[in-house]
Specification:
- By secondary structure, the chain is mostly helical.
- It is built from 11 helices and 5 strands.
- The chain has 2 domains: 38-111, EF-hand (Recoverin, domain 1, Orthogonal Bundle); 113-249.
- It has helices at 7-20, 38-50, 64-70, 77-87, 98-111, 116-126, 138-145, 154-166, 179-186, 191-194, 205-243; strands spanning 58-60, 95-97, 135-137, 170-171, 176-178.
- The strands form 2 sheets. The chain has a 3-stranded antiparallel sheet.
- Helix 4 crosses helix 5 and helix 6 runs parallel beside helix 11 (205-243).
- The chain is flat and about 80 Å long.
- The N and C termini lie far apart (111 Å).
- It comes from Danaus plexippus plexippus.
- Residues 1-33, 212-250 are annotated as: Disordered.
- This is Myosin regulatory light chain.
- Keywords: Repeat.
């Protein structure tokens, strides 16, 4: 009896499937680092979702430096490259998965940070960079640095401007200043930065942090003063209305 139509074809496909072996097992996702508690994981997950633009449980590589900065870190370019080398599957991927993101945070915590973190925070406060873009209006920053704390002199600022132009962190066309990159260069221990005639003491973390704190305190006191004046005026107006019989006394 001749074989039924299609039977040989099915047998051939089955043989090929057997030769190829079993299908690959799904990738096993490792548990999160033990150093993170539920609150930490919730915060990290929320940030991850906020940068998952396509809703695919992955974020783009270029988002990682910004995400780390929002957690209070100030990763150098070399550190970002090392994180990608350590935790991404290969050089061809252009996204980061959630578990990889967690291990990157853990690694950066273990590596620690130097003075750049506090300096960056102070620059962000003085430059009103509320979105943590790392970019500031240099003219606005100049006014703040020459007003708060131990002010920079005009000569010191010019020297600083020359350095910013030299390392291409200042764009004369639009006045933007990449202060995060500038701080990274200052901390690079590169000979060309050490020899620059700039007063680095006035730009260290303690001075800048004190400037930012003083600025915030004075702004708070100014707001409180205005609020007290407003309440005093309202009370005076209320007392006049009571005296005129327009409203009953308390």
């Amino acid at each position: 009896m001749p074989p039924k139509k299609g039977k040989g074809k099915d047998t051939t496909q089955a043989a090929k499937a057997m030769a190829m072996g079993p299908p690959p097992k799904p990738k096993k996702i490792p548990p999160p680092p033990a150093c993170f508690g539920p609150d930490d994981l919730a915060k990290f997950k929320e940030m991850f979702k906020a940068h998952d633009e396509e809703g695919i449980d992955k974020v783009k590589l270029e988002a990682i430096p910004l995400m780390l900065r929002k957690l209070g870190f100030n990763p150098k370019t070399a550190e970002i490259k090392e994180l990608f080398r350590l935790f991404l599957e290969d050089d061809l991927v252009d996204t980061v998965e959630y578990h990889e993101w967690l291990f990157m945070i853990e690694a950066k915590m273990n590596w620690g940070d130097d003075f750049e973190v506090e300096v960056t925070k102070a620059f962000a406060a003085l430059a009103h960079d509320d979105e943590d873009t790392g970019i500031a209006d240099l003219e606005l920053l100049r006014e703040e640095l020459m007003t708060w704390g131990e002010p920079l002199t005009e000569i010191e600022f010019v020297d600083w401007l020359k350095l910013a132009i030299k390392d291409k962190t200042y764009n004369p066309e639009d006045g933007s200043f990449a202060y995060v990159k500038f701080i990274e260069n200052m901390n690079a221990k590169d000979e060309r930065y050490i020899k620059e005639p700039i007063n680095f003491f006035k730009l260290d973390q303690k001075t800048l942090a004190a400037m930012a704190m003083q600025k915030a305190q004075e702004e708070k006191e100014e707001q409180e003063r205005k609020e007290a004046e407003r309440r005093a005026k309202e009370e005076a107006r209320r007392q006049r209305m009571i005296a005129d019989g327009l409203i009953p006394p308390d």
